[in-house]
Amino acid sequence: SLASTAITCFTRGLDLRKGTEDVLCPANCPLWQFHVFGDGIYASLSSICGAAIHRGVITNAGGAVRVQTLPGQENYPAVNANGIQSQVLSRWASSFSVTAGTTNTALEAVGRSVSTARPSTGKRPKKTVDKKAGNKDCKADIAFLIDGSYNIGQRRFNLQKNFVGKVAVMLGIGTEGPHVGVVQASEHPKIEFYLKNFTAAKEVLFAIKELGFRGGNSNTGKALKHTAQKFFSLENGARKGIPKIIVVFLDGWPSDDLEEAGIVAREFGVNVFIVSVAKPTTEELGMVQDIGFVDKAVCRNNGFFSYQMPTWFGTTKYVKPLVQKLCSHEQMLCSKTCYNSVNIGFLIDGSSSVGESNFRLVLEFVSNVAKAFEISDIGSKVAAVQFTYDQRTEFSFTDYATKEKVLSAIRNIRYMSGGTATGDAISFTTRNVFGPVKDGPNKNFLVVLTDGQSYDDVRGPAAAAQKAGITVFSVGVAWAPLDDLKDMASEPRESHTFFTREFTGLEQMVPDIIRGICKDFLDSKQ
Asked: What are the LCCL domain coordinates in residue numbering (predicted)?
């Protein structure tokens, strides 16, 4: 019979086997999750149901669609239609078109469709969701810069593609896992596909298989510079707060200079790895422009960022150690900036002299400082403690992993009102808030905000905090005595002590505090 095949929201053209096929799309697919490439003629990577809604053949209520396989195309355009934004793709090996299916065939499938579109038995669907999400523990946006020069030749180029494919699969690519793209280095660099083009290992593998060998000189330096500057833009799919990595594959040696490209990559916050295969022999070294080319290009010359394979044959055993390196985000030294590598604790005076309306100005100051940093589970973190004679942890470093949540938590802090025991509060914060993160990778900062004299000693607790690796900034308002502020602040005290007569003056201090934190962060890295 002509029964339609029930498919899921995510079934793509390339998942079908026949030249013409009648399918049945389920209802209520999430429009924003559709990957659709082209308009009218869609790249076979596209979701069939997504393309059918885009084309107006069905609505989100689902329905019958006839899919016709077509040859590959150059330049699939991006068009917004029926609530779906299709994406550009420069080239793909096969395509399809969609037309309305006939309902009588669809009816026979209705019985089946429910069970196939949404498996109702306990375990199955969970698994597919996780596979889509990918390996969440591996935080990386990766460009594989492959060698397409005459040095490598067509045969070894194919072996290189196999190796890159294996690495891509083992990484665990997915919507919440690593994203990858490929750039080919030859005479002129060519970005083959971007981070945003594919979020499933199967699609990436297919795209790698389709890559054609370009040939020419191995102008790796030129390609590295181009990739560092152009590849990681937000519109091309780079994600905020995720380490940017370029893995350079080099067969033999480069025809141009890598030093300048290495500097540019570091300036752009990109971690460069070099995988060298078949290193130059002693006789060949005379032909290499710069014998130290690896050391000059990598993120840091500490051994971690360079990787060697003797040949392109039997490379399977090299896949896992390389993947482990690419997934260890705490080693990505070139990603670390003061904005994504600090913990900032705010110690907020809630004594009765502050008053409700000034307390709001204090919270605004705290928000404006926090806003400057890239807060995430692998980035910077913020915590807040309010104190009178007592202390209250408003939220700790591990409570909120996004900037939005942190800012909303700051807004929701309730004013306590009471006395002022700043020394006790510093000890409490050192122990309870910074204690749990003291062995973490981030540098620790404490910003103390107070408007008056403390009833207890501040010098001892502040010295203990500094000894525990916390840099202290003191911010005083109104009646806060300058001696107390200086006693709390880290060295050099002048640049860590701030004072304003009025609470409205806090606003002007925001940029100075941010700059101070960044300066200390950089000084600690020297």
From this structure: 3-96
